[in-house]
Amino acid sequence: MKEISNKLKIFIWALFDFANTSYSIVVVTFIYAVYFKDVVALGKPIGDLYWSIGISISMLISGIIAPILGAIADYSAGKKRFLLFFTLLCITSTSLLFFVQEGMIFWGLTLFILANIGFESGLVFYDSFLPELTSPKNYGRVSGYGFAFGYFGSLASLAIAFPLIQSELIRETFPISALFFLIFAIPLFIFLKDTRRKVKVTKSFASIGFRRVKNTFSNLRKYKNLALYLLAFFFYIEGVNTTIFFSGNFARTSLGFSLTELALFFLIVQTTAIAGSLLFGILSDSIGQKKSIIISLYIWIFTMVLAFVISDANNKLLIYLANYFNSEMHNFQSMSFYVVGLLAGSVMGATQSTSRSMMTKLTPNEKKTEFFGFYSLFGKSSAIVGPLVFGIISFTTESQSYAILSISGFFIVGLFILRFVNDAKVELN
């Protein structure tokens, strides 16, 4: 097969982001998340707790196996085969969600957990292609291209799902999402090369993986700057993940959004996310990844406080503003939450994309997949605590207002730690 150009390689790589965000928007963020609480969990407050448990289990498993798989893939240089396995696991489990109906909490969570393990574990190998596609000075914008393509995929998925939502064919959106993922993921497996080395293996790949991860942990003191960055990332990505997992349920439960209003809300989020990913990708290459992430975290904190304020119809400030604009309270809350969506969307992809490019910059090239496994471990393990905190607060108080405010705490801690990270230093130990 004729060698393809770098620009085409980047396009094909980004096309996988276009594909997999169909799963992310349909299952994780919007349609299945709302369907699970409204239908599967019968609309009860404990549905938030069940959903948070499902998220935490899938993230815990993904986080544990991610660095092991990354180390194995580095040793055998077989990223694509691992990515294919986890991609098919996600696609198959997503399509089977069609059969989940009222009261089927066990199967609803089991299939979601399997799908999310496939999605999250696959990202370890997908992300590790980035250093092979471009030079370090362009990591930010290429990573931004991937996230921007992803949000275009979300828009396309929502456009396909919208008539089904209006026709109340909710379950049909799950296999369609899986098919979308499959079709647009295929080019990566056909056209991107994954150079494999012939190695003499005296031990199982599992034992090799465990040994390499153990060595990385024991030598982590050599990568102090990277370790500090991962700690900051752990906290602030906690807030991003929790927002993604619960934004749909929050709008549905606390603000009474209809599915049609939710579709419009997520169209706004995805549209601004495209612009944010591209803008921050260029910005991070100009002023640095660290400064770009800090800007995004300030926006996140303001967004969470705003969401908290508009969720309480008895808030004096909200009552004053609604009266000032001569608006009925529910309508004013709804319009205000669209503003929240606009703000969150503008930094959702930006924070993730810039974090990925900064990780690429700080990671030793010879350990790129293994260290991206640790990056994934920190990201996924962070998604265990945040959703559980949200679910527990929501369940015990029977209100999501304080649960949404708790998310800002994760951004504040991450912001504080990030200030001590030197993003000008590329660690090559």
- The CATH topology is given as Growth Hormone, Chain: A
Instruction: Give the helix level as a range of percent.
Output: over 70%
- The topology string of helices and strands comes to HHHHHHHHHHHHHHHH
CATH class, named: Mainly Alpha
Intertermini distance: 37 Å
Q: Which segments are poorly predicted (pLDDT under 50) over 5 or more consecutive residues?
A: 425-429
CATH homologous superfamily? Answer: MFS general substrate transporter like domains
Largest sheet: none
The fraction of residues in strands falls at: under 5%
Spatial shape: globular
Describe this structure in words.
- The protein has 16 helices and no strands.
- The chain has a single domain (6-193, 205-418), classed as Growth Hormone, Chain: A (Up-down Bundle), CATH 1.20.1250.20.
- The two termini are 37 Å apart.
- Mean pLDDT is 85; it is low at 425-429.
- The protein has 429 residues and is mainly alpha-helical.
Task: Please give a quick description of this structure.
With 429 residues, the protein is mostly helical. The chain contains 16 helices and no strands. The longest helix has 34 residues, at 329-362.
Write the layout of secondary structure elements.
Blueprint: H1 6-29, H2 31-40, H3 46-76, H4 79-96, H5 105-127, H6 130-133, H7 139-166, H8 173-191, H9 205-218, H10 224-254, H11 259-287, H12 289-311, H13 316-324, H14 329-362, H15 368-397, H16 401-418
